Amino acid sequence: MTTSDISRIEVLKGSNSALYGSQAVAGAISITTKRATEIGTEQSATAEVGSYNTRKLSYSYATKTEKGEIALTASHLSTDGFSARDENDGNFEADGYRANRLSFYTDYQVTPDLKIGVNGFVEDTHGEFDDFVGDVGATSWVETSPGVWEPMFVAGTPGDDYTIRDTKGARLFAEFATGAVDQKLDFTFYDIDRTSCSNGWCDDFFGTRKKLAWQGATDLGLNGRLVFGADTEEEEAHGESTRTNGVFAELSYAFGDNLDVTASLRHDDHSDFGGFTSGRLAAVYRFSDDLLLRASLGNGFRAPSLYELYGPYGDPLLEREESRSAEIGIEKRFGDKAALRLTAFHLKAENLIGFDSAATVCGQDYGCYNQVDGDSERSGVEISGDYLVAPKLRLGGSYTYTDSSISTGWGAVARHDLSLFADYAINDALSSTLSLQHVADRPNGLADYTVANLALGYEFAEGKEAYLRVENLFDEEYQLTSGYGTSDRALYVGVRASF
Length: 499
Hints:
By secondary structure, the protein is an all-beta fold. InterPro entries: Beta-barrel_TonB (IPR000531), Beta-barrel_TonB_sf (IPR036942), Plug_dom (IPR012910), Plug_dom_sf (IPR037066), TonB-dep_rcpt-like (IPR039426).
């Protein structure tokens, strides 16, 4: 998805199925689209051009009254891109991307106790990619002897590997109060129509997801609040369907002024994979207003998707994934001048679903989804902070140490990941940000890398800014995934305005 219509992104790490259902096996991401921040009308627009013939346009309109609000964002992104398979391995063809997106939100306060609304989006994209062997040719598998399959390379056609995708989604909701209980009723719908073509062969995928959810909440005196509800979700794809029914409750309670505890419990019943009970316990202890200790425990599960089960690379015998996670952290603030956060974490998963490209394992030409043997565990620490060195200069950074030495099927996670940044206001109109990331001790033979980015912004009028962004400032050659390319040094310029 593109980011033009996003105002805020929140990431909740760890197993959170008790709060968000079966898909939150390792975390949840909450994305809030742009809306008016106060009574009145707000508009914004952005235009950007840059490397790889990249063009980006967006316009947002939002208005809010005492009775309701309307928000609308339209955006376009197109780029010629760079080779999906690394150009340093002889791949010559750029793989481009194009996306058009329209999102909307509206609500209306019918009575003091009833609000109704609808929000949603439509998006169409066209993205190019490379064969498993890149631009040098296409691959097929030949059985050279009984049970032995070997790759055969044939001439590829530049530009014939692409995916076209049309997606749309909507949410209708009502919020109302009945006595001491605040209630919310949601109906959500999501639809995807995707065609992926490679070397003249196209794979079609059509899928829908429908969900009806009810939630109630009530205060338990001055210190507690109880949230409870139920939902039912149906997914359809490839002529197959599944349904998941769930019930949940969450109790939050403040033990005095220093300790807050939240306990969540959920039970889901999946039409193919049976019942599963998930829970989460979280607590925050305040030594003082600026010193916090927090901890959480949770578990989760994820049923295989219909594509993983019944798609062209699917395996109908896959089992559900299950996870358990724990973390403990401390946060210290030094007024508005500095902050420091430290978190230790552990995550364990069973029955991870991976992808095996070996035809001898899957029994089909291009591999299949499979159940990874054994358990996968990750543990480590994260530390982050920032410091206002001077009125116009703020420094900050984060470091993550991850031990995934006994993990299987979880990809290439580096042991060390260090990020640093510096925000400097050159004058009242001109600002700058320099960021740097260093990733080291990577598995699977991947090399360490260091990437720097630079951004400059110039406010030439109130609410109007011109900017320059340089990504991969020192033109580092690196790979995030073995065999796949990343951007060379790239420069982007644009203007944005709010009015």
